Amino acid sequence: MLFPKKVKHRKWQTGRKSPSRLARPDTRGTRLAFGSYALKATMPSRLTSNQIEAARKVLTRSTAKGGKLWIRVFPDWPITGKPAEVGMGSGKGDLKHFVFQVRPGRILFELDGVPEASAREYLRQAGAKLPMKTVIIARD
């Protein structure tokens, strides 16, 4: 599972949850940089480290012999939660997991060194493990 080795602040403030702000297209990480095929997000969502790991396992099976895989996201946003049946007050909850906040247009994974038909199939399978709609793009 992916998580930061060291963080400056263990618990972050929640931040704004405006749907219009999250639906705004991303400006960074929107173009193919390393591979020939990529999985691109088309809607906003939060990716947990478990979901990234599930998609990574599907893709590493495809690239076992000769392909190369790049993971373009890293979960560094801490999510806290209080246990069940605990009263209000007494501070913020303990750290549960880390997430990456995905905005539309963000490239999540890139593949290279794999035939196009199999790359599209494996990226489709990896997209099925994620909680958002994705599209497969290829280098022009």
Automatic annotation (TrEMBL):
Annotated stretches, region: Disordered: 1-26
Keywords: Ribonucleoprotein, Ribosomal protein, RNA-binding, rRNA-binding, tRNA-binding
InterPro entries: Ribosomal_uL16, Ribosomal_uL16_bact-type, Ribosomal_uL16_dom, Ribosomal_uL16_sf
Classification via Gene3D superfamilies: Ribosomal protein L10e/L16
GO molecular function: rRNA binding; structural constituent of ribosome; tRNA binding
One Pfam family this sequence matches: Ribosomal_L16
One GO process term, biological-process aspect: translation
Basic residues bias locations: 1-14
GO cellular component, one term: cytosolic large ribosomal subunit
Quaternary structure annotation from Swiss-Prot or TrEMBL: Part of the 50S ribosomal subunit.
Protein role: Binds 23S rRNA and is also seen to make contacts with the A and possibly P site tRNAs.
Similarity comment: family membership: Belongs to the universal ribosomal protein uL16 family.
NCBIfam families (alphabetical): rplP_bact (TIGR01164)
Protein name listed in UniProt: Large ribosomal subunit protein uL16
Organism: Candidatus Kaiserbacteria bacterium RIFCSPHIGHO2_02_FULL_56_30
Lineage, highest ranks first: Bacteria, Candidatus Kaiseribacteriota
